[in-house]
Amino acid sequence: MTARRGSVVLVGGGPGDPELLTVGAVRALAAADVVLYDRLAPYDLLDELAPGAELIDVGKRPGHHPIAQEEIERILVERALGGARVVRFKGGDPFVFGRGGEEVEACRRAGVPVRVIPGVTSAVAVPAASGVPVTHRGISRMFTVVSGHAPLSAAELEHLAQLGGTIVVLMGVTNLPSIAAGLLRSGMNARTGVAIIERGCSAAQRTTIADLADIRAVAERAGVASPAVIVIGEVVRLAQQGDAAAAAMLADVGSTGGAP
Ligand code: SAH
Question: Which domains does the chain possess?
Fold first, then answer.
């Protein structure tokens, strides 16, 4: 008898609501022997979705790095070489600021078969959960997704300000003051709408809206915290009906919504 050949599947878990898992994600979890999961992925249901699998929390919170990236890659490879079907379960989409590319490379280097199942990215789904479409006919015909983890350069801010489309910032809470100031300096209209959606697609979702000129003060007063998606652009005006209306709009997707 030959030993079973192990493998790694990178699975995008979506923005947190289990209703936004793909069919492929559910199938991969059901077949998993080992699941390495992130804090941002919808891990509450892993016992149910991956019954019998060994669950390893490799989540990172801002400022804390419980397990280094190299160590995650080492575990993925080691377990797969040992014959396990390994799922790397990540928040949103694995290739949107998810270090998915590095994990694919690590598997390839080690000769481990690797597959990727894309996920619903928070960059699009979290604004939607707050009633903000990232594009809208006549208002915005592009959206740019940018990491706010490190400060943006003056050139980047200028380009963004001049694009005239929607700007979606992930990991941007800490650098929000410098991003807002930089966009204003680069000539963006001070009355451009900004929405900050915290803990999107969860029961604890909260949306804070203000004009670009005021968002820093308003966010500070509200005590806005990570994880949050920041949307900058005229499309934010479309959200004025509030979180409750947006949640009702998305509700029929899932079991909570009931039949129409
Ligand atoms: N790969 C992920 C993004 C990873 S970067 C994706 O495609 O969604 C992590 C950042 O994503 C967080 O700092 C936050 O900006 C955003 N994010 C992810 N899930 C979120 C959620 N449920 N609510 C608000 N922001 C979220």
Answer: 7-117 (3.40.1010.10), 122-256 (3.30.950.10)
